[in-house]
Amino acid sequence: MRKFVEFVGGVVLFGGLAGVVRELTGWFPIMGFTRALTENVWFLEGREILANVAIAVVGFAIVMIADTKRRT
Fold first, then answer.
1. Could you give the CA distance from residue 17 to residue 7 in angstroms, rounded to a whole number?
2. How far apart are CA 48 and CA 25, in angstroms?
3. Which of 45, 49, 63, 70 is the S-S candidate for 9 at Cβ 3.0 to 4.6 Å?
């Protein structure tokens, strides 16, 4: 179960970082699973970079929580 949680956290972290790179440079047009969130939620309009950074931070937190559970 911990490996699955780490995998999910890694995917969320990668998605958030890819979203930041996409917003800053225009690369990664295919990595759009965070774009669906940032373009379709009205209060995130104009705050796409902040939303992607928050997604990356949540992914990092998930990975760290899974790692903490492994060590106890």
1. 15
2. 13
3. 63
- Residue 1: how many other CB atoms lie within 10 Å: 7
Half-sphere CA count of 24, side-chain side, radius 13 A = 11
Q: pLDDT per position in the chain (72 positions), as tens? A: 888 999 999 999 998 998 898 888 877 677 667 778 787 888 888 888 999 999 999 999 999 998 886 565
The pTM of the whole model exceeds 0.85: no
Of 45, 49, 42, which is closest to residue 26 (Cα–Cα)? Answer: 49
Structural tokens at position 3: 């490996």
53 token code pair: 């950074």
DSSP state of 37: H
